[in-house]
């Protein structure tokens, strides 16, 4: 389902989204062209599936998504979680086919950015091209960070890193960094971190017992962010 066209210049997410850093003149130049339409995606619905033809990238305007990859033997791996201002669909640039499924974790809306138009605008507005390259670089760094999580950290450090990353991203968007409503389930967190759901639940309980946070179902109150960071730093030393 689609809805009204949008103008990046008047969007409250522009400072954390693709147009970040553009001048007023540059914003006016891209306003009627960058975003073709805004699309609604209901909770549980798929924005695109692996194998679908790639022709657009999507900026999350509201809501929350997960990206999921399935192996040939039927195993499913959560590869990431995306929130407001973040792009989905970059996986399809190389092959022109999407490599993952993108599923809404709650009722969401995305800004549809036709890739051909994005390429044309990037040639006209150099700063937009630079920002897009930074976004792609950030995705590469994030993937490398996930590899570090899965390759060298124990369960407690993996969950600490996940929570600190999540709160950092929420704080950049003006939300509380201490009170977090998890949109994803324990199973989805476990899939992303390479942990069994029982391990995730047990680690949350341990963090609460240690005074690092307070858990009430999906509502997390982080009471000792320094302690979480120290736990993570122990993995890096």
Write the layout of secondary structure elements.
Elements lengths: L1 E2 L20 H7 L6 E5 L4 E3 L7 E7 L2 E6 L5 E7 L4 E2 L12 E4 L3 E7 H10 L1 H27 L2 H18 L6 E3 L4 H8 L3 H13 L3 E4 L2 E4 L2 H12 L1
Helix pairs in contact: 2-3, 4-7, 5-6
Structure explained in plain terms:
- The protein is of the alpha+beta class.
- 40% of the residues lie in helices and 23% in strands.
- The protein has seven helices and twelve strands.
- A five-stranded antiparallel sheet has the order 1-2-9-4-7. Strands 3-8-5-6 form a four-stranded antiparallel sheet.
- β5 (65-70) and β6 form a beta hairpin.
- The longest helix has 27 residues, at 126-152.
- It is globular, with a radius of gyration of 19 Å.
- The mean pLDDT is 90.
Helix count from the secondary structure assignment? 7
Strand order of the largest sheet: 1-2-9-4-7
Average pLDDT for all residues: 90
Point out poorly predicted stretches: none
**Gyration radius, rounded:** 19 Å
Per the principal axes of the C-alpha atoms, what is the gross shape? globular
Estimate the strand proportion.
15-25%
Describe the biggest sheet?
A: 5 strands, antiparallel
Topology pattern, helix = H, strand = E: EHEEEEEEEEHHHEHHEEH
Helix content: 40-55%
What is the structure about, briefly put?
This protein is an alpha+beta fold.
Summary tags:
237 residues; alpha+beta; five-stranded antiparallel sheet; 7 helices
């Amino acid at each position: 389902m689609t809805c009204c066209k949008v103008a990046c210049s008047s969007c409250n997410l522009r400072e954390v989204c693709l147009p970040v850093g553009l001048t007023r003149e540059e914003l006016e130049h891209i306003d009627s062209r960058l975003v073709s339409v805004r699309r609604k995606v209901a909770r549980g619905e798929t924005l695109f599936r692996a194998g679908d033809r790639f022709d657009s990238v999507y900026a999350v305007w509201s809501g929350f998504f997960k990206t999921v990859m399935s192996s040939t033997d039927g195993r499913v791996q959560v590869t990431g979680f995306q929130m407001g201002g973040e792009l989905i669909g970059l996986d399809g640039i190389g092959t022109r086919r999407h490599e993952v499924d993108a599923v809404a974790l709650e009722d969401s809306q995305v800004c549809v950015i036709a890739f051909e138009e994005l390429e044309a605008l990037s040639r006209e507005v150099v700063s937009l091209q630079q920002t897009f390259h930074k976004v792609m670089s950030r995705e590469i760094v994030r993937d490398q960070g996930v590899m570090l999580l899965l390759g060298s950290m124990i369960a407690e450090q993996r969950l600490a890193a996940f929570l600190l990353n999540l709160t950092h991203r929420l704080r950049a968007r003006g939300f509380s960094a201490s009170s977090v409503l998890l949109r994803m389930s324990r199973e989805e967190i476990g899939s992303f971190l390479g942990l069994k759901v029982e391990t995730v639940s047990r680690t949350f309980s341990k963090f609460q017992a240690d005074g690092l946070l307070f858990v009430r179902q999906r509502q997390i109150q982080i009471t000792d962010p320094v302690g979480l960071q120290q736990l993570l730093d122990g993995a890096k030393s």
